[in-house]
Design goal:
0% helix; mainly beta; 5 strands; single chain
Length: 57
């Protein structure tokens, strides 16, 4: 169950959903596309997604 979710933008402008989910006993960000598929890299430019690199709205 997500505690907090928001959208951010990759450097290329692709919109990414970020949800904090419990992962091995700790809360961690997980990234999703608009179709709710989990992603680790931007589908548009291929860069590995990192929370601190995304522009939040």
């Amino acid at each position: 169950m997500p505690v907090y979710s928001f959208t951010g933008d990759c450097r290329c402008g692709f919109e990414v959903w970020i949800e904090y989910l419990l992962d091995r006993g700790a809360w961690a960000p997980h990234f999703f596309d608009q179709d709710r598929r989990r992603i680790t890299h931007c589908p548009d430019c291929g860069v590995e997604l990192e929370e601190e690199e995304l522009d939040s709205r």
